Amino acid sequence: MILPKIYNQYFVAIIATIGGALFGFDISSMSATIGTPQYLDYFNSPSPSTQGGINASMPGGSLVGSLVAGIVCDMIGRKYTIQFSCFLWIVGSTISCASQNVAMLIVGRFINGLCVGVTSSQIPVYLSEISRHERRGRIVVIQQLAIEWGILILFFIGYGCSYIPGTASFRITWGLQMVPGFVLIFLMPMLPESPRYLASKDRWDECHEILAQVHAKGNKDDTVVLAEMMDIRTIVELERDASSTYLALFSKKNWRRSMVGIMSQVWQQLAGGNVMLYFVVYVFQMAGLTGQINLIASSVQYVIMVIFTTPVMFYVDKVGRRPLLIIGAIGMGTFVFAVGGILATYGKYADEVGGNANIHITLEGQFGPSRGVLVCSYLFVLGK
Fold it and tell me: Does domain 1-192 have CATH number 1.10.8.60?
């Protein structure tokens, strides 16, 4: 069967960023289940270090995936790399769904992480290379929206499955992760290859054709198309004359921009993003919420994140990346500090909270501080 080709930039972005939804699915596959009795009973209430290892296995796989993604993409192209990563996602989700013990779950999540490392690093590259300069910011924001929709969708699936007795509760949740992987494998052939990749392989006619289809409905003489061709030629020639190793990123000419790119991501993680996404159920349990009320309150955080990320798509190209990054960073730092401060000041130590031996601080019975943690957690994701 020959699938039709799609050249509309927004449709291309919507399909490609299903890969971002995989990242969101993986986050919720843990956050929606780690507080349920079905998960705790089957995996013998994992200790803090064990649960940390389970959660960290996915970022560990992502680290490996992101390190090899660029090399593979330059060899076989963006499309085929993304498709192959989805195959890894399906394998990892299958292993997680069938997990008989913690070790098997960690292996499955590590393989899932390999996919996330590829998609989270290469889909923004693919989108930036396929989109027009003046739309590039909003197109790439769709990737973040896809991550957040993935978090939200699978969290509610996990919430619904929490009513199912036995291991089917989390196995169904983890098994449904495979669906977007299959969808992306099937739809990727409909998308054009990156013009930048084609140019790097001296496939200039194909590069010109795709640019014309994406930017000018097939008109190869359009001024925007010709300008993009000229820019790509210049960049490709520069890349061939320069070293393309990882060490080249830290040369005298490049190290400043490399450090900006690296440290912006490092500090984004250190600002508490993973704590407030993977372990939000634990945070709200410390605030005194239990059972289904905890899951519902946690889902509100993800709803807020989706709602307030959407307007950014329309302003990022007007306001600029840097001001939004600074404002978001200040907001994240302020409110994660506030959450920690409230818990440290008003929290009481306990051997375990709500039967969970991984939690040792509780605000139970303290209405004001408890609601303060909830509000600050919700405000945190506005900056996120």
Answer: no
